[in-house]
Amino acid sequence: MHRRGLDKLDLPRLRFAQAEQTYTVRMLLSLALTLGLLIVLVRLPWHVAPPPIGWRLVDEDRRLALIATQLEARAAEDAGVPITRFAIPETEAKNEGTRDSSEFQAQDFPQKPEPPARLEAMEAILEHAEKPPQIIGGLGAYYIHIEYPEEAIRAGIEGQLVLRFVVEKDGTPTHIRVIKPLHPLCDSAAVAALRRTRFIPGMQNGQPVRVHMQLPVRFRLLPNPAESSNPDR
């Protein structure tokens, strides 16, 4: 009696243990099958189509002719020569029995308009205008900008130099040159002061124009008041 009671109690445990063992075996088999399938898929020789390449064969002579023609056209544009048309030269067919298709008709190109910068550069610079340029604030406004170099003062350098420049339509001085130098220190000071000076532009027929100008600049050392009061020293 006691033995039968123990068997009835152990029966559910045995069934549970068997079910757990069966589940474990099935899981291991599933993992093994999955790994085997992955290995097979990886090792299979898959055929992949090559990507399309956007190149095509071009006749070497024709390609060189095109490049040479384009370079000539670009050089002509830089020189300011209007381009109306150009033709690609004929090339001989390389294969016998084929029709020569290397003749091209001339291509018409629209005339490239001149850019504003080039037109402005081509404008004439007048030597004299009906109303010449004037320094805003007078000549004294220019001399205010001059900084007499200390080294030139200690060396006792004084005298006159002459600047030549162009007054643009907006009143700014450009193309500044020293046509009669005095000393490098004084020349640099005069040019630097002129760059900070603004002008009323010259007028011709009621329109602002570019005008050449020359400006004499005088560097003069004033006597020291202490030295003038003591002439013996």
From TrEMBL:
Query: Which species is the source of this protein?
Result: Rhodothermus marinus (Rhodothermus obamensis)
Source organism's superkingdom? Bacteria
Q: Subcellular location, in the record's words?
A: Cell inner membrane
Q: Which BP terms from GO are recorded?
A: protein transport; transmembrane transport
Location of the TonB C-terminal domain: 133-228
Residue spans with biased composition (Basic and acidic residues)? 91-102
Kindly provide the name given to this protein in its UniProt entry.
Answer: Energy transducer TonB
Q: Which residues cross the membrane?
A: 23-46
GO CC annotation terms, alphabetical: plasma membrane protein complex
Tell me its family: Belongs to the TonB family.
Membrane topology reported for the UniProt record: Single-pass membrane protein
PANTHER family reported in the protein's UniProt record: PROTEIN TONB, PROTEIN TONB-RELATED
Q: Quick one: where's region Disordered?
A: 91-113
Q: Which of UniProt's keywords are assigned here? A: Cell inner membrane, Cell membrane, Membrane, Protein transport, Transmembrane, Transmembrane helix, Transport
